[in-house]
Structures are given as structure tokens and as C-alpha cells.
Amino acid sequence: MSVIDKQERSRIAATLPARVRLLPDGGRLWLIGVSAAVCIAFAVMSDAPWWLSAVAFLALSLTIFVTSVPSSDSRHRADFSANNLRRDLDHRSALLIAALPDPCVVVNRRGVVVMHNEQAASAIVGLRMGEPLSFVLRVPAVTEALRLVLAGGRSPAVHFGERVPIERSFEAFVEPIHVNPSSAGSIPDYVLIILHDETKRQRLETMRVDFIANASHELRTPLASLLGFIETLQGPARNDTPARDRFLGIMRQQALRMSRLIDDLLSLSHIELNAHVRPQAVIDVSSVVAQTVDALSPLANDNQSRLQLTCEGAPFAIRAERDEIYRVFENLIENAIKYGGDGQTVRIIIDREPAQDGFAAAVRVSVVDQGPGIAPEHLPRLTERFYRVDTQTSRAKGGTGLGLAIVKHILARHRARLTINSTLAEGSTFCVRFDEVFQGDASCHPIVKEGS
User: Fold this and answer.
1) pLDDT band at 444 (very low <50, low <70, confident <90, very high)
2) How far apart are CA 274 and CA 166, in angstroms?
3) Where do the Histidine kinase domain residues begin and end (predicted)?
4) Phi/psi class of residue 416: alpha, beta or left (left: φ > 0; alpha: ψ in -120 to 50)?
5) What is the pLDDT of residue 202?
């Protein structure tokens, strides 16, 4: 009998009348035997007729039987009390599981989910009570650990990753639950699976390694340039005023390049750190794009370019972090101005895209330039860190090689999609698609804004 069964029996017995507290079968037989011996001794030692002893024996046996077996009403009360106790225990267990900060799932010997908390429902898509855990958590390492524990063994912590809908890392602890502590080491009654989210820790470690590698690689060139000019100014050009002024100007440009590079690296690290947390604020993306166009109009003027914003059907509500979305379109529009050719028009178009190819209807923002275009072999790698189609041109225009990498990571956090289409000698189109929170007012007038 398990510990819980013993506790239930003791608690139920304490609430019932004395006549209902059951004697074991062996105890009843022992009392009946003693009664028979007493009746036989009474018949032998007295002159009473034998039938009188038999009647006394039957009366004693009936009394023992009646007083040791509960009535149907008493049994009903006992069953009712036991059910209440089980419900009370289940309720307490559910409260304990719900209070744990990590995703927790309890399965029975058949691997069927019998209990879980809200964190588990959020971490494991499709998790349901009464269904096998293997239906929704298809991780071979976790399945093997569960099989091992259900067979009476022990399993070490299991590390695994999920790539859909976003990349996450977990450490799973699979532990047996024995209702009776004395049965430890045997087949468990239940198994507890705890999933500890390792995403943030692993991202920090990856960011640390990437930051050191990227910074050392990209900072080496401007630092070498600065050291060379400093040595020149300390030596042959010490008293050469024109050369000193020219060198100082170049040194300032290299210092500004290093400053931009460090700012972009820090921004990228911050974005990656929060990549698994989807923004919940609702903003109008058309207002953010309009603000970006206003801010970049002076740069367009310097390049003799025009910015044309077309927005039909505003507002366009999306779940996003405003500053990060501003950074996305600042990078895309700035690139179109710099690399789209002087005297050209950069068009920014905001509209709605109907559902197609399995995707729901979306808000679409397109940045279209009339530049020289990008060769097809470069398109798949444009969003890689420090990848440049033309290194000399990019550095001459102040590029760090991180702009599109930042765009990619911000859009991944927002569950948005970026597509790039380009034709040589015709131009490029960078298109961003967001899930719309609700439909805008169709009666809104189209917005056409030009900056020149």
C-alpha cells in the first residue's frame, strides 16, 4: 500500500463511526475461532444442552461480522471522503507546479500529460492534457531520457534547441516521481520534465565571442592607419603644416569610422540579446516611415536625390518597437540614397499585400532605388555581417558592413519578412512585410510625400 493510500485510509477512518472501522479478514476469523472455543468449553463443563452452545456460537459470530463490516451508507461516505482527499492532493500539486518559474510537465507511465503550468503551454506549442508529450515535443534526446526514466533509470540533463518560430535553447531535467518513497529505484508513478530556458545565456556567450572576433577584425585597419599617421606626424611631418592638416583630417575620418563601427556592434548585440522576446506595443508603421523620410531628406539633398513616400490606406497597425523599426527603415533608405546613384528618385511605398502562398495578409513597405543594381550571386549574402558587394565604395561612403545585418535581426525579432530583388542597371527593391494587428480605415486618403 502506498503512502498516499495509507494517509487516505487513516484520514477516512478517523471521520467514521467506530463500528465502520474495518477489521482485517484475519482478525475476524481469529475472533470467530475464539468464540467457538469458548462455546465448546461451556458445553463440556456445564450440563447445558449442546444446541444452546451452538446458538451462542452463532450469535457471537453474527455480532462480530455485523460490527466489523460497514453499511452501504458508510462505504459511500468513505468513498466520498477518499475522492475529496484525492482532489485536494491534485489541487495542491497543481498549485505547486503552477508556482514554478520554468516550464514544467508531468506525465504518467504511458507518457501522457497529466499536469503542466502556463509556462509550459507557452514554450511547447500544442501541449494538451491527456495527450502524449511526444506528440508536441519531438526531441529525440528528451524522448530517450523519458524512456530511460520510465524504465526505472536516471537521465542526465538534456540540452536541445528549437529553430521554429524562433531560435531558442533549453536544458531539460527529467526526474521520476514515486508516490511511495520506499519504491525509489523502481518504475516511477509519474515523471516530471522541467525545461530551463538557456537562450539568453547562450546568446550572451555567442555575442561575446562574435564581438571580440568582429571588433578585432574591423578595428585593425583604422587603428593601423591612425598609428601610421601619428608616427609620420611625430617624425618627418613634424613641421610640415599642410601635411599635418591633411593627416589630421584623415585621422578624424578613421576615428569616426571606428566610432560608428562600435555603435553598430553594440546595437547588434542588444538586438540579438532580446531576439527571443517579441514586441507587444502597437504602432502605426506609416508614421515611423514618414519620420524617417523627414530625417533623411538633408542627406538626399546632398546627393541630389529625391525621396518619394506613397502610403495608401493608413494607418497600418503592427506590433513593434518604434525605435527598432525606425532603425530598419533608416538603414534601408540611407543605403538607397548612397548607392542608388546621384540625381535619382528613391521611392518608399506602403500598402497591404493580400494573403498568398500560405501567408496571411500583411503590411508591405518597399524601398525602391534606381541604382546600378546588385549581381545575383551577392543577394543571398547581403545580410551577413561585414559582407560588402564593393568594399572600397562602402568604406568611402562610411559604411560599416553591419547595416543589413541589423535590419535582418530586428525583423527576425518582429517576425517580419525581408525580400530583396535587384536587376543590374535597373535598380533594387527591398521589401519588408509585417503582420497587421487590425485593418486600417479604408476611407483614409492616400498620402504622397516628397522630399527633395
Assistant:
1) very low
2) 12
3) 214-438
4) beta
5) 82
* Cα separation values, 4 from 1, 9, 96, Å: 8, 9, 17
Three cell numbers written together for 247: 593627416
Higher pLDDT, 397 or 83: 397
The model's confidence at residue 185, banded by pLDDT at 50, 70 and 90, is: low
- pTM > 0.90: no
What is the per-residue pLDDT for 246? Answer: 87
- The CA distance from 257 to 425, in Å, is 30
Q: Give yes or no for residue 5 having a pLDDT over 60.
A: no
Beta-bridged to residue 311, according to DSSP, are 350, 447
User: All domains of the chain, ordered by start, with CATH?
Assistant: 3-77 (no CATH), 100-197 (3.30.450.20), 199-277 (1.10.287.130), 278-452 (3.30.565.10)
Residue 52: its pLDDT value, please? 59
pLDDT of 130 above 70: yes
Task: Tell me which of 166 and 87 has the higher pLDDT.
Answer: 166
Burial (Cβ within 10 Å: 0-12, 13-18, ≥19) of residue 319: middle
Kindly tell me if the per-residue pLDDT of 344 is higher than 60.
yes
Strands 306-311 and 447-451 come out as antiparallel
Q: 160, 138 in Cβ contact below 8 A?
A: no
Residues near 291 by Cβ (< 8 Å), separated by ≥ 6? 326
**Alpha carbon of residue 17 to chain centroid:** 55
Read off the C-alpha cell for 39: 462455546
Which amino acid, 99? Answer: A
SS3 394: helix
Pick the closest to residue 378 from 312, 329, 423 (CA basis).
423
Closest-CA residue to 394 (of 221, 157, 147, 186): 221
Q: ∠ CA(400), CA(404), CA(409), 5° rounding?
A: 120
Q: How far apart are CA 59 and CA 37, in angstroms?
A: 14
In this structure, what C-alpha cell is assigned to residue 248? 589630421
Query: Is 323's pLDDT higher than 60?
Result: yes
Fill in the DSSP letter of residue 443: T
Residue 264 confidence (pLDDT): 81
For residue 118 the three cell numbers come to 502556463
Measure the CA–CA gap between 343 and 366, rounded to whole angstroms: 20
Q: How far apart are CA 348 and CA 156, in angstroms?
A: 54
Measured CA to CA, the distance from residue 224 to residue 318 in angstroms comes to: 45
pLDDT level of residue 441 (50, 70, 90 thresholds): very low
